[in-house]
Amino acid sequence: MNEKTTAELENLRGLIDGVDQQLLHLLRKRLDLVAQVGAVKHGAGLPIYAPQREAKMLAKRRAEAQAMDVAPQLIEDILRRLMRESYLNEKDVGFKQVKTDLGHVVIVGGEGKLGGLFSQMLTLSGYEVKSLDKDDWLNSQTIFDGAGLVIVTVPINITCELIASKLTQLPSNCILADLTSIKTAPVEAMLAAHSGPVLGLHPMFGPDVGSLAKQVVVVCHGRGESEYQWLIEQIKIWGARIVEAEPEKHDKAMQLVQAMRHFSSFVYGLNLYKEEADIESLLQFSSPIYRLELAMVGRLFAQSPELYADIIFAQEESLVAISDYLDNYSQALQILKSGNREAFVKQFEEVAQWFGDFAPQFQRESRAMLQSVNDMKTG
After folding, report:
1. What is the pTM of this model?
2. What is the pLDDT, as a whole number, of residue 377?
């Protein structure tokens, strides 16, 4: 570049830096306003996440962006990221306490990550929370005395045994709940062990979410719904979306959503290991969608093998789902080996028709994710 071009670029970049600084000040101002909103919501007991308000605001900003010749998706992307930050900030203000006369809460397994998250959320809502872990059972009677809610969050393979052997002498009006990722056996175990209110919960997220805004919590009713309705309302105030399901229906879905998906990722990672794949090289040649897929596989192996063994081995019925997947994979492989391109296209079209309107919907959603993945590249 010649000196004139260099000077022009430096001048323009300086102006851009100035605009960026203005943006920072505006962001700070917006976050301060959000903190005030959080305080008002806290006082009124309103949910942290208001989907109708969010949708209306995004639609209005998109229209305004269009009128200013700014890409509507750009302003939506910016606002969604801002809202995620806002939810994190609103959470720190605290939440209204729905049940003020509860007594204290006991989290069995409270030192675990998910137990720690629920302990934090309940504490932010004004409840007294006590943790009961493996070294505390000698003092368990004292810890349980006066408890209004006991939440079990321990490894799946010991959940039912622990409930049956350790939780049979709770106060009669105490709510007994669990956070296990399967529901039929734990709910049955709680109903058998405890005569009071029983509730099965499955948070469909990990402990690193930061905020429960827009997260899903599955509710499986056990006994005494009117006695624990306040807890469901409390979770809604945290911003979560409640999905009610029968335990059996939930567990059937988890065979596909969790067990088969995690097992498939495990095998994919195992295959990369067996093939001695050079991950650094794969990343250099990867498209955004493959990078995202590889990230999802890598994410699995960055976490506890015991956790995923619990999920995959939790239901014997998962073996059927995984075996069916293997059969379908083998049949598709036979089509490939036979060189029957027409058969492949025919099956592809059948599956596409089965997906229906979800296919283009998922295409739009994945396009946004892939653009974000591509934006994160540094080299």
Report:
1. 0.84
2. 66
pLDDT band at 286 (very low <50, low <70, confident <90, very high): confident
Number of domains in the chain: 3
The token pair at 191 is 């109903």
| Domain span at 313 | 250-375
Residue partners of 195: CB distance under 8 A and separation at least 6: 172
Q: pLDDT digits over 183-222, tens only?
A: 999 999 999 999 999 999 999 998 888 899 999 999 999 9
- 149 part of a folded domain: yes
**Span 329-338, pLDDT tens digits:** 999 999 999 9
- Over its C-alpha atoms, the chain yields an Rg (Å, rounded) of 25
**Rounded CA gap, 124 and 91, in Å?**
8
Sheet holding 198-203, edge to edge: 129-132, 104-108, 147-152, 175-178, 198-203, 216-223, 241-244
On whether both 148 and 77 belong to a single domain, the answer is no
The per-residue b/e assignment along 97-129, b for 16 or more CB within 10 angstroms, e otherwise, is bbbeebbbbbbbbbebebbbbbbebbebbebeb
Any domain includes 98: no
What pLDDT was estimated at residue 379? Answer: 57
- Residue 138: which CATH number? 3.40.50.720
Q: Of the residues 64, 93, 122, which one is the last residue of a structural domain?
A: 93
> Residue 151: helix, strand or coil by DSSP?
strand
Please indicate, yes or no, whether residues 240 and 272 belong to a single structural domain of this protein: no
Residue 156 included in any domain = yes
In the chain, pLDDT over 90 holds for what percent of residues? 74
Return the CATH number at 25. Answer: 1.20.59.10
Q: Compute the average pLDDT of residues 281-299.
A: 89
DSSP string for residues in 289-324:
HHHHHHHHHHHHHTS-HHHHHHHHHS-THHHHHHHH
Looking at the DSSP bridge assignments, the partners of residue 68 are: none
Q: Which of 245, 265, 300 is the last residue of a domain?
A: 245
DSSP 3-state of 101 = coil
Tens of pLDDT along 86-113?
Answer: 888 777 778 999 999 999 999 999 888 9
Q: Are residues 239 and 294 in the same domain?
A: no
Q: Are 224 and 196 in contact, with CB atoms under 8 Å apart? A: yes
Q: Compute the distance between CA of residue 88 and CA of residue 75 in angstroms, rounded to an integer.
A: 20
